[in-house]
Amino acid sequence: MKRKIFWKLFFILATGLVTFFYLVHTITLKTEEKMSFIKAEHRAELRAWGEKAESYYVQKDFVGLEKYLQEIEQQENVWVSVVGFKAEQFAGKPYDKDIVGYYHFGRSIDWKIHLYFSDNPIMELPFQEYGASFLIRLPERMRPGTHWLTTKFALQIVIPMMLLILLTLILYRHIITPLHRLDNATLAFSKGDLSVRVGQHFAKRDDELSHLAKTFDSMASRIGELIENQRQLIADLSHELRTPLTRLDIAVENFDSSNSSQHLERISRESKQIRKLVENTLTFAWLENEQPKIMQEQVELVDLLDVLIEDARFEFACKFIECELPNSAVISDSSHKALCPAIENVLRNALKYTPCKETVSVRLTQQQDHYLLEINDSGPGIPEHLLDKIFEPFFRVDDSRMAESDSFGLGLALAKRHLLSVGANIYALNQKSGGLSVKITIPKLQM
User: What parts of the sequence cross the membrane (predicted)?
Assistant: First the structure.
């Protein structure tokens, strides 16, 4: 697991938030700087006042200058004056050295205005060539940054909070939406919809949640398969039990002391068949559900085949078994308990459908990483489209062929499940010369 969600969150929250607040800080400073300058139209108005005051000054019309300054003062309710560079007052109210300073009288109208000072600054517009300046305390209406505190609050509090809410919503949807899909799928699955899957909704993702979706789909597929198999197995078992139970009922109902041995024989036979059917079904269900990997011991295949072939020759005395076996075939980490019943079922099945005086051949050959066991019979074979189905439980090619048999269609199904438990595989082919060929591949060593 590469913790992709962790890195996504780290990138968004750590890197993203640091970058975001850096940008907020930078934008705030830029905005503050921009808002610290007097507007262009106000600067033009101040220049116009200064130029007119300068015209009075140039003409030595100090009475007119005084009257003009009083008009500005009354109009704007501000301090206004014209002062020479030698601190010589020509008109207006006396200047205050604490206001105008010792080396300059005021601020240029092109400079920034401090937004955090409560008092408006003195603005200075120097005359061109005459050693004096027009001074005016900046009118309140011209003061820049009127809405600075509101703007600052919006930039540093409101906008970041709204963006964080949006980011939280995106992250929430990114994580919770797939969890809701999984929750809905789990609920639907618990209500019996075994076909529900969520993988298609996570096709564009590649993180822990997509891995969880794949795990859910795998689990749903496996559980659905188990449930369907169990349903089918129960239905098949119920169907198969009807015939022996019916015969058993008939034998019990018709039981009489005059022919007791015949009825007892029938009852015993049907009881054994029912027991065998139930035991095989339970074994098959366990192998199907658990899918165990039985790899515990070393197995000598040749010795195992010798024992099985000897028993088969005794049981099917009217049929011939030809063998082609190596001197030794040892496989590691396998199980006699799995291989023995599997091979025995296949061999008995081949002998069952081979007519008397005909031959079943058994051949074991060594391949690169496995052994190949071939069991070929001389029976009628199986239609090509049914070759894969013979390993399904309770499957019969046709009832007429099975009428003479006590088999319930579990032999080859059990054989396949046993072989899968040790990593082996089984499949069937029709021989060109007639008859069925069952091939079993057995790995030499389980990894």
Answer: 153-172
